[in-house]
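Translate structure to sequence.
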């Protein structure tokens, strides 16, 4: 679809990948409704959006609150008169711990933000998107939806749910005007741990490859323009995706060994 002059809702627009997707869309001539729980983060995004700030609106919203999300379409339509796409970036990780050590509250928080947040905004905006000549739904899954990572097992489970939800939606909308893209980022150099309120693990001096959020945003927006089915971001994501296709058990054991060394 055409990026220029289209209107996109971007969740998680107040930090990290969501912020950079917002800035990339604006730079390509789109208009953006950036959504985030933190008003200060949205204000920082607005400051960085110069000289495109007039094409940006900000919306303070908890995507896990389905009742509040139902008001989002009207809010965006009032500001922009149309909605051509939604890019669901908002997501958090949990503390690095075995699954059995996570509390019920921790589990529910991850599900509510990562899975229900994506479902809430997608379904709330879908009727409006279906009325457009061409529209896009882009959901951010994760490399951990393709292969599990010890210490982030439940995060991976929610991202696996996002994958299945997105690809199921792709099948249902395959003959419509709405393209559905699922994105699988590898290690991205953002502060997701700080934004999630958890401490990052110590890599023990090991160099960990990471893709910049700027490059990640470019690849995501390219995927929107191309109507891509899947977007794999980073050499780690592409490599592990191939390994999982060749031997899922082998790939899983490689990751298990790496994670054991740092947990």
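Result:
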């Amino acid at each position: 679809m055409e990026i220029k002059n289209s209107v996109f809702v971007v969740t998680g627009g107040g930090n990290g990948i969501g912020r950079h997707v917002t800035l990339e869309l604006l730079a390509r001539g789109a208009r953006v409704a950036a959504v985030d729980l933190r008003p200060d983060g949205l204000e920082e995004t607005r400051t960085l959006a110069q000289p495109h700030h007039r094409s940006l609106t900000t919306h303070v919203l908890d995507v896990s609150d389905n009742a509040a999300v139902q008001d989002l379409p009207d809010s965006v339509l009032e500001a922009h008169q149309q909605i051509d796409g939604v890019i669901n970036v908002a997501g958090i990780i949990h503390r690095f711990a075995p699954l059995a050590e996570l509390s019920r509250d921790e589990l529910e928080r991850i599900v509510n933000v990562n899975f229900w947040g994506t479902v809430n905004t997608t379904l709330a905006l879908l009727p409006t998107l279906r009325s457009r000549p061409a529209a896009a739904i882009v959901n951010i899954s994760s490399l951990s939806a393709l292969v599990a990572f010890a210490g982030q097992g439940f995060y991976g489970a929610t991202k696996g749910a996002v994958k299945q939800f997105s690809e199921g939606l792709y099948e249902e909308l395959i003959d419509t005007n709405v393209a559905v893209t699922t994105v699988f980022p590898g290690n991205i150099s953002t502060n997701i741990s700080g934004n999630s309120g958890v401490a990052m693990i110590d890599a023990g001096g090991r160099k960990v490859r990471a893709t910049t959020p700027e490059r990640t945003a470019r690849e995501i927006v390219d995927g929107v323009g191309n109507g891509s089915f899947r977007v794999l971001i980073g050499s780690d994501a592409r490599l592990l995706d191939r390994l999982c296709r060749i031997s899922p058990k082998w790939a899983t054991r490689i990751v298990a060994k790496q994670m054991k060394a740092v947990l």
